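Record type: monomer structure entry
Structure origin: computed from sequence
Chain ID: A
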Amino acid sequence: MKAVRSKITAIVTAVALLVGSVTATSVINKTSALQWDFEKAGFKNSWEYLLDRDGFVYGCDYNYVGMVDFDEHSLGPNFISNKSATYNHYMAYIDIYNIKALGFNAINYWLLTDMQGIHFDENGYCVKLDDQFKTNLRDLLELCRDLGMYLVPSIQPHGIPECASEPRSVSWEKYTSYLWNDTAREMYFDNVIDPIADIIAEYQDVVICCGLTVENSTTYVNDPERGDMQGDCFGTTWEHYSEWLNAFHDRIKAKMPNMLTSTEEGGGTEKEYRLNDTKVDLIGNNIYHSGGSTGNIAEHYKGRPGYIGEYNIGEDSDGTDFSTPYWGRIKQKFIVTAKEGGWLGAFYFKYGGAYDGGKNFVMFTGNTTDYETMHIWAPEFRYVINDGINEYRGLTDVLDAPVLLANKGSNEVFWIPGRNIEKFKLERSDDGGATWKTVADDLGINEYSIDNGLIKYTDTTVPTGIPYCYRVTGYDANGRSSVGTANNAAELFIPQNLVKNSSFEDGAENWTFEVGGVTDEQAATGNKSAKIDTINGNDASNYGAFYQVVDVEPNKNYRISYKIKFDSYTYNGEGDNSFIRCSRLNSENKWQNLTVQYSGQNLVGEGWVERTFTIVTDSEDSKVRLQACTGNKNSMTAYYDDFSITELR
């Protein structure tokens, strides 16, 4: 233990040198009379405090909402691509709770992805940070504080969105001129970065480091003289980029002198080495390797402290099945090799999000609220991380405690069992943890274990109308016991479907059909479904096939689900695939997309497939439109059934 502690102390000292001789009191603090807890403990920032506590930053990238068919998690609307904010308080709470249950002590969250949350003038200059963005950022920070999760906000990740009215290269020149134009740069810092830093400065007990960029020196630099050729053949020079990055660092330090800054990069050691010439305190390296090796930090940098900003085994282009326990062990091996290589932390990429095109990345085959779709290897992260922390703290022969997943207001209880545990006792409290009653005793691990290794129990005695929570005690073969921490309190909630005539048993009642109609040829449930047939003489030019306007409440989270079956589908090669979309009425009384979920040829021959996504209504929403669309002149024969919109709590 002494050797490990001494090594970490040396690392903390080296990191502390990065903030120089600034005082231990930040420019912006909770109040002028109070200190942060890390300051009281003698540390300059939360990064130092966390390293001293756990010995390593065990991180997980949480950049996307945890829906398998929906890959966005934006804090604010995007005024370039005309997309609404998709941040969801309910989903974020459940996900962050469960990321912590898996053992991780920090998350990384992308903020200005695709320039979301920024208002622009006619020149593409940044004039304002959106109010909804600021509200959602505070909500995210409050959740992390409440749940005891540390955060690295990656403020400006790579990416420029497609704009329907202009080529992407034009969007680049217009909206990222802050990289080389002095006026645009000052407006970007004054109107966007400073407001973000002002908010973060209030949460320095939560934020361990400000990630300035993610792989931007690869995607934003197009400098032939240095041998940097950006794939899309647009960008800026390394000189401009590094000047901007250093100015970015200075802006954060002006608000929070003791806050560490970092930048993440991949793309080879030559591009990584040049980051040593910038001002950032820490350099994050993104590594994808089929053997789980991170390499030594000295191979990538000249001694600058660093961490692994992203790690995984790479894409699944060759059809390899990465869902097996073997590949899970390779993923977890990165933690071991990162420590051996001198890195200060490592962030797994990624927790949840879109499954297609990167299914080996995510920890679920379905939505992150569907615990039964968690990969069998995901709970193993808990054990690897626990072992690392126990070793650092000098603890041996520690019996794993069972760890409950978040209570979703259901009567189904899920938990990570712990190694060497053979049976469990499940208790429930209906008074906030003051008293406990036994729900079930002597629960055998083999009897209640499901396919992915989690334990599942259905509590048929849950009361209605009052918050309840659970705790679990595990017992090994020798009679030793370990009590897990109680999970969050929630009320039993039975959602009601807000879609009328949701399975078309009453024909077209409550629905408006522009293309297609109701048929009794096929049905997922009952006897009828909606059918779109643009092959046999039907009009395929109309994007909107059929829809229903549904009453909702403002500031609520809703889950939308439906079943779809494609007998045939031919994409015409231009424009959109077929899709389901949910829209809201904006201030101009026009329908604006909340969510669009595409489908088509990938589902032909798959039979009935259930798909889901979530939406968040804002303070003025009272109605949404749920619509099935053919796309742009696509030839298709498809059936739709069992639509639902239910509130999430």
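Annotation 1: Residues 182-200 form the longest helix (19 residues).
Annotation 2: Residues 21-33 have pLDDT under 50 and may be disordered.
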